[in-house]
Design goal:
Layout (H helix, E strand, L loop, with lengths): L1 H27 L9 H5 L5 H7 L5 H9 L23 H17 L13 E13 H13 L4 E5 L7 H20 L3 E7 L11 E3 L2 H4 L15 E8 L11 E4 L3 E5 L8 E9 L2 H13 L25 H4 L13 H9 L18 H12 L7 H9 L3 H4 L16 H5 L4 E3 L16 E5 L12 H4 L3 H12 L3 E5 L8 H10 L3 E6 L5 H4 L8 H10 L27 H4 L21 H8 L18 H4 L2 E5 L17 E2 L3 E4 L3 E5 L5 H5 L5 E5 L1 H13 L3 H4 L30 H14 L5
Parallel strand pairs: 2-3, 3-5, 8-14, 11-12, 12-13
Antiparallel strand pairs: 1-8, 1-9, 1-10, 2-6, 4-5, 6-7, 7-8, 10-17, 11-15, 15-16, 16-17
Helix pairs in contact: 3-4, 5-17, 6-7, 11-12, 17-18
GO molecular function: phosphatidyltransferase activity
Protein name: IQ calmodulin-binding motif protein
Length: 750
């Protein structure tokens, strides 16, 4: 442990020296040129991707510096016609968030703070498949996408740990090589992960040698086992705290998977969305920006953008057949998907070391659903427990047994059976009822990594991810739903309570005890139980003496900025975004910033009630839950590694959603690289919520008490086993040090 801490200290010193040198170089740069503004860049056709296609020998990192090192600041408001969202107009709230992202990128001076070329922030796409399932079930879909690849695969993950889960991927790479050989082709595969080392103090992107990525800790296949694959592996970390926390995959520049899971064995429920359409080009650009260094061999799909191709899933007859019955246009719901599993019990399960690949998504759905169907002599929940018990800790002592009541036999398939693969019909998108679906508005809401150990809120809230999170919550009029492993980002907390106070229903699902040790480190801001208690009962969130981490407004809290699509009319009515002052100091401006948030637009007086905890009536609009697995009737603390949840999603007013890699925690807001996509669709949000509620028992059994923010057994009143409550004790920082080391090693939650 001490060796790890000494290495971290050395990396911190070297990183500080590196950034000092970078600042000197920037000061020496010429300032006499006329540089573009962020709005000029957004309207340009030049991107990292287009320049890489023109000259694939140039490193993407050098392209990025050439295009985006010098940007002229501007006080102008964003033109109303910015953004290529396709033919479906975005809602005023969506457009307001996009404009705020641009304003804050301009103010930050770093237009690549969102890890994507400015013209590709705005996009559009479809979501043919969503997965809410244990980690291996998501990796099984990844493996099927890999074996069906024709030219290239780009896979990015935070942790890659040799495991049963990683074997599902490596089995697929071997199968891909075999299929490519049969075609007489070679496929290019790029793997990007984070395994921090001292060398990254000088160069953040390290090409991983063959001897390292084939060792027993990583165990990727050597060239002789995949002769028809050109594979390159890069290790990416920005010391000290700039973790590459991203998890995504792009295949043949036709589809992208954006997921919450790493490549490792654990007990997590996870979420993955399959994206198709122009948004894939945006994520392809993210691939290049994240890789940064040389690509040898180059990516073969560099000059074949997704926007020029048909939507793969919605041109697949077998996928379309999922949504019709007896040759009619009658829609097929999740109950029919579940029934398909019962009708396919002869299908073998797709397992590490014993793979069974499918040629279509429809085949994957039938196979995965069959694995959840009860075997002879097995109840429904026993089948779920069998499927969930995949790690050694879950299988210990006979395995985790179901405790939830069995659903009645007549309601099992119709409403209760777990349905991890959730296909979305063409009718979920505009025009899909009569023809090919029209892509809906999307944008990339991400953030670049920051290694410097700083917790400056004025700096942090300018990242597109954080702007999107905070603006969505500030703009909510009816409802906010959040599922995240942990929630302790200080800029978020006052905004949640303010939403409750203006009448918004706020629902938050977190995982009991998720990475408690790491969250007890100084400046990490505490555990889920501590934060839940503060949200319900802390008057200090809104007093003018609030010193912890005052939130800074991103746009004025005016009526126009919070209009619903039906109320707003012309998008030009959206309030002008507010530009933050980058020089704001966290402590010196604590009172000023907190005070500013307590004043409504056009008012000069504080609201007296905002210095008080939530009233009982207000608390009724704030519901916080601890995750409860599909087979359980109570939460299980994360330290037991039996049933945990790692999903990251935010849904506002049932039409605007942000999904991807970002937690609602301090590390995500201040330091890690995160990739998220924001979309605007009532139908997609509806189907996501249906899947989230159906595939876990959180809403049924996980409600915490507003008295202390903790879950209590409804029969005994006791807290869950292992829970530490709202007071972690005097030496909580020591637990935090241990947790930090576990995270670096991949043993803790991340």
């Amino acid at each position: 442990m001490w060796r790890s801490l000494l290495e971290a200290l050395l990396i911190s010193i070297l990183t500080a020296l590196f950034f000092q040198q970078q600042r000197r170089q920037r000061r020496r740069a010429s300032t006499t040129m006329t540089h573009p503004t962020i709005y000029d860049l957004v309207q340009s056709t030049t991107t990292i991707s287009s320049e890489y296609a023109r000259d694939p020998s140039e490193e993407p990192g050098k392209i990025t510096k050439r295009l985006y090192s010098h940007v002229r600041d501007t006080d102008e408001s964003p033109p109303s016609n910015l953004g290529s969202f396709g033919s479906v107009p975005p809602s005023p709230l969506f457009l307001s968030i996009y404009h705020s992202i641009l304003v804050n990128l301009a103010a930050s001076g770093d237009v690549m703070a969102g890890m994507v070329s400015p013209p590709l922030i705005a996009s559009s796409g479809v979501v043919p498949l969503t997965i809410v399932a244990p980690l291996p079930d998501i990796v099984k879909h990844m493996s099927n996408c890999i074996v069906r690849a024709k030219k290239e695969v780009f896979l990015a993950t935070n942790f890659w740990i040799n495991s049963d889960t990683s074997r599902i991927v490596t089995d697929a790479l071997r199968e891909l090589s075999k299929r490519a050989g049969e075609r007489g082709d070679k496929v290019v595969v790029k793997v990007l992960y984070d395994r921090g080392n001292v060398k990254q103090a000088f160069e953040h992107h390290q090409h991983v040698p063959l001897s390292t990525y084939t060792n027993d800790k990583v165990n990727l296949p050597p060239p002789e086992e995949i002769p028809n694959i050109h594979m390159e592996v890069v290790n990416y970390h920005v010391p000290l705290l700039g973790t590459f926390h991203s998890k995504f995959m792009v295949v043949d520049r036709e589809l992208a998977l954006l997921m919450s899971n790493n490549i490792q064995d654990n007990d997590n429920l996870e979420m993955c969305v399959r994206l198709e359409g122009p948004i894939v080009d945006s994520l392809y650009d993210v691939c290049l920006a994240s890789w940064s260094t040389t690509l040898n061999p180059p990516l073969p799909c560099r000059d074949s953008p997704a926007m020029s191709k048909p939507l793969p899933s919605y041109t697949d007859p077998s996928f379309l057949a999922l949504f019709t019955k007896d040759s009619t246009k009658e829609p097929v719901d999740l109950s029919s998907v579940a029934q398909a599993g019962h009708d396919s019990l002869d299908l073998s399960e797709h397992l590490p070391g014993n793979p069974h690949y499918d040629t279509t998504i429809a085949g994957e759905i039938r196979r995965i659903q069959a694995s959840y169907a009860p075997k002879p002599g097995e109840t429904h929940l026993q089948a779920v427990s069998r499927h969930f018990n995949i790690t050694k800790m879950q299988k210990a002592d006979g395995g985790v047994q179901p405790t939830a009541p069995e659903p009645s036999s007549d309601s099992l398939v119709s409403s209760e059976e777990m349905t991890p693969y959730i296909p979305l019909p063409p009718s979920a998108f505009p025009g899909g009822e009569i023809g090919s679906p029209t892509p809906i508005p999307m944008l990339v809401a991400s953030r670049a990594p920051l290694g410097t150990p700083t917790f400056s809120i004025p700096q942090a809230v300018k990242y597109p991810q954080n702007v999107a999170f905070l603006e969505a919550i500030r703009g909510a009029q009816k409802s906010i739903f959040i599922q995240t492993p942990n929630l302790n980002a200080e800029p978020l907390l006052p905004e949640l309570v303010k939403a409750v106070r203006r009448g918004v229903q706020v629902e938050i699902w977190v995982c009991l005890g998720y990475n408690d040790a790491g969250e007890l480190l100084p400046y990490q801001n505490g555990t889920n139980e501590m934060i839940a208690n503060r949200l319900f009962n802390d008057p200090g969130l809104f007093t003018t003496t609030h010193q912890a981490h005052p939130s800074v407004p991103v746009v004025p809290n005016t009526k126009e900025s919070m209009l619903t699509p039906n109320e707003a009319g012309d998008a030009s009515q959206v309030a002008e975004p507010h530009r933050l002052n980058e020089s704001d100091d966290l402590n010196a401006n604590a009172n000023v910033n907190a005070n500013a948030q307590d004043v409504e637009a056009g008012s000069s007086e504080l609201h007296p009630k905002e210095a008080q905890p939530l009233s009982e009536e207000e608390k009724s609009r704030l519901k916080i839950y601890n995750y409860v697995a599909k087979d359980q009737d109570k939460p299980i603390h994360n330290k037991f590694k039996k049933r945990s949840c790692h999903i990251k999603v935010l849904i506002v007013d049932s039409h605007l959603a942000i999904q991807g890699n970002g937690n609602q925690d301090t590390q995500t807001y201040f330091h890690s690289q995160e990739i998220n996509v924001m979309l605007d669709s009532e139908e997609v949000c509806k189907r996501w919520m249906e899947g989230l509620r159906r595939n876990q028992n959180t809403e049924k059994y996980g409600l915490v008490s507003p008295l202390d923010g903790c879950w209590h057994d409804p029969k005994t009143g006791e807290m869950a086993e292992g829970a530490i409550g709202v007071d972690p004790g005097r030496f909580s920082w020591a637990k935090g040090v241990i947790g930090a080391v576990q995270r670096v090693r991949g043993a803790g939650g991340f």
